[in-house]
Amino acid sequence: QSVVRYVSAGELFGVAQAMNLMHYPATAVAAVDSIALAWPSSSWNRLIAKYPTLASSALQTVGSRLQDTQARVMELSNEQVEQRVAHALLRLAKQAGRKVDAGVEIDFPISRQDVAEMTGTTLHTVSRILSAWEQQGLVEGGRQRIVLRDANRLHVLAEGEDAAQARKPAS
Fold first, then answer.
1. 20: DSSP letter
2. Sign of CA pseudo-dihedral 6, 112, 91, 66
3. Which pLDDT tens digit goes with each residue over 77-99?
4. Nearest to 95 by CA among 9, 163, 155
5. Are 127 and 81 in contact (CB under 8 A)?
6. How many Cα atoms are found within 13 Å in the side-chain-facing hemisphere of 2?
7. Residue 141 pairs with which residues in a beta bridge?
């Protein structure tokens, strides 16, 4: 299984008709209690004729997802696993982060297995990386919970800058 992305409140998803597809090529699974508004595919042409901003929003969504996909392919192809994990956590914090006393909490339940599926690696590898990062004060974990305690140092790791520099205590 691969987790491609988490959809935030208010985002469009599953817009198969906007891509001229009969069925969307993925499955959505709710991470938390959610409400999704849906309409039959057969209504798409009528809806975009009446509400042109729907077509514009769908096009922007598809374009944004294409850019995200290209970035993820480049990450999987060219980055070390530690960089991919750092990028994934930073992306999730940007998308669904909530300020807390300890840093920025990813504001939905997320497991180490989820992170492994997002980054094309194994649960064992993600557990090893996150445990090391917890000891270094970069992240704080818990059951289905991740808090970014030092996003700046994670950014250094994500960009592949000197790993020793990322491990230095903040001055």
1. T
2. negative
3. 889 999 999 999 999 999 889 99
4. 9
5. no
6. 10
7. 146
Which tokens in the block code for residue 100?
A: 């807390």
Closest CA to 154 of 103, 108, 114, 96: 103
Tokens 């030092």 sit on residue: 150
Predicted TM-score of the model (pTM): 0.73
Q: What is the number of residues in the chain?
A: 171
Query: If you ran DSSP here, which 8-state letter would residue 2 be given?
Result: -
Q: Is 138 exposed, middle or buried (0-12, 13-18, 19+ CB in 10 A)?
A: buried
C-alpha closest to that of 4 among 117, 121, 83, 108: 117
Residue 141 sits at φ, ψ, to 5 deg, of -115, 170
Instruction: Give the pair of three-digit tokens for residue 82.
Output: 């530690």
3-state secondary structure 108-151: CCCCHHHHHHHHCCCHHHHHHHHHHHHHHCCEEEECCEEEECCH
Query: Contact, 8 vs 96, CB < 8 A?
Result: yes
Q: Where are the beta strands (DSSP E) in 16-106?
A: 97-100, 103-106
* pLDDT > 90 in the chain, percent: 51
Measured between alpha carbons, how far is 91 from 4 in angstroms, rounded to an integer? 12
Dihedral angle over CA of 114, 116, 122, 128, nearest 10: -100
Q: Which amino acid is at 15?
A: V
